[in-house]
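We emphasize that the prediction below concerns an isolated chain of 203 residues; any contacts that depend on oligomerization or on bound cofactors are therefore not represented. The input was used exactly as deposited, without trimming of termini.
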Amino acid sequence: MHSRFHLISVTLILISFCIGIAPSLAQDNEVMGEVKFEGATKIDRDAGVWVDGEYVGYVKELKGDKRVMLLPGKHHIVAKEAGYNDFVQDVVVEPKQVQTLPVQMTRVSGAETPKVTSDLKLTIEPTRAAVFVDDKYVGHAGELGGALHSLQLPPGTHHIKVELAGYRTFDTDVTLIAGQKSEVKTELVKGSIEDAGSEIKKH
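Result of the prediction step, given as a token string:
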């Protein structure tokens, strides 16, 4: 009898706790605002997006379960794509409001492709991971892999780093020879948010 009474008491405490936190969670969701991203060109839609210094993904995937929900207030948005100027915009998020941010990338003037190059194919999972070559963002893994995609880099040694929040950072050095085709293939290992490297947090 005593055990049964104890079980009922514990059950009532748990129910009371759940009832107590449910309104709090609901209130947090109600005060959030959403920022939608859209791009007119493939370059715009493939641009990587940082919000307040944190990489959140690339433009065309930021919807559904990957939509960007932010607390009310001012937020700093940066979109990046290799060979293009950074798109920078500050937005003010209002509670329960949805706003759309058109991302427009502009090509870097005077940028030239090296006359002598090597092809580097990247096969990486998850495909939404951010890829950096020599500490410069070059795109998300999905746009750099596959049978028809590769990076054209000057011959020599290059440092490859792949990062995504919630996964351990992958990095390696590759030495490329002129006219040579090489491949880097990896699948990121899941970890905590603290395992994300500095590159996706500082841009």
